[in-house]
Amino acid sequence: MTTVAAYAATAADRPLVKTTIERRELGPLDVLIEIRYAGICHSDIHTARNEWGGTRYPVVPGHEIVGVVSAVGSDVTRHAVGDRVGVGCFVDSCLECEACTSGDEQYCAERVTGTYNAVGRDGEVTQGGYSTHIVVTEHFVLKIPDGLALDAAAPLLCAGITLYSPLRHWGAGPGRKVAVIGMGGLGHVGVKIAAAMGAEVTVLGHSLAKREDGLRFGAVDYRATTDPQTFVDLRDTFDLIVNTVSVNLDMDAYLSLLARNGTLVELGLPEHPLTLRAFSLARNRRSLAGSMVGGIPQTQEMLDFCAEHGIGAEIEVVPADRIDEAYDRVVASDVRYRFVIDATTI
């Protein structure tokens, strides 16, 4: 075992503290990564503050990890010392079930192992990217293309693939009208990706406060959902709507914006069950679906796509001793659009 520095949550109502954790010794198929940046995802906050329940304290959050390979196991062939690499939301799966062999490891039938707050096959609780180093099996390590800055690439390991996967799966592209509900940490990346895919993108925001940004990111229209006229003007319009917010919405109102055969994909995880009228789906043969990040092959595809199109997250880099301040600002929606921790300050 190797001891490394980290920032951990020790209780739901306490600030994160600097501590040390143990990383496993390098196995034949393992990669040791010196972490340079770790994105702050709202999932980190939910877990650190036990808002979803089930947090195993102490926990080191962070599943938007980028850095440089500092050592590799004897049988590693995909990565070499000095490579720029990333790690996303999970670090293990069975690799044998139909989902895994199809490149959908996130839906592993045997249980995917989250990057933090999960129990690995060794029985140990996984600890994430708010640390100086991490050891990950090579299969779950992504290559960061040279065209991406490491700090702006970090949020792509969660936010980027969370949007890229449904946009690709449901065919965003030329001739398709796509709406993105919410333009926060997830939504702003989705606007960029959908526009780069060639879709006609509309942002559905709570207000018009971010309209200028939305148009700059590639949207052709930006509407306020607090304006009832929005739901009149855009009725039966969209082929695909991706919902990035985690609050309970009027599902019937948003489903009414779908064209025939259109799909609304839930990406946010609201606290309460969704409610809707069956007629909202039956009319226009609409669909309501969900999606959860993406597999390793698709995540690599996303990173390559973002590098090709110059897409990175809009970020504010903070030192590790300001994590709690960043958490409070995320909750207050006081960031445009993602915080990234400088892991060299840990």
UniProtKB/TrEMBL annotation:
Belongs to the zinc-containing alcohol dehydrogenase family. Its EC number is 1.1.1.2. The keyword Secreted does not apply. InterPro entries: ADH-like_C, ADH-like_N, ADH_Zn_CS, CAD-like, ER, GroES-like_sf, NAD(P)-bd_dom_sf. One of its GO terms (molecular function) is oxidoreductase activity. It is an enzyme of class 1 (oxidoreductase). Residues 11-341 form the Enoyl reductase (ER) domain. Signal peptide: none annotated. It catalyses: a primary alcohol + NADP(+) = an aldehyde + NADPH + H(+). This is alcohol dehydrogenase (NADP(+)). SMART domains: PKS_ER. The keyword Chloroplast does not apply. Pfam families: ADH_N, ADH_zinc_N. The lineage of its organism: Bacteria, Bacillati, Actinomycetota, Actinomycetes, Mycobacteriales. Keywords: Metal-binding, Oxidoreductase, Zinc. It comes from the Bacteria. Its cofactor is Zn(2+). CDD domains: CAD1.
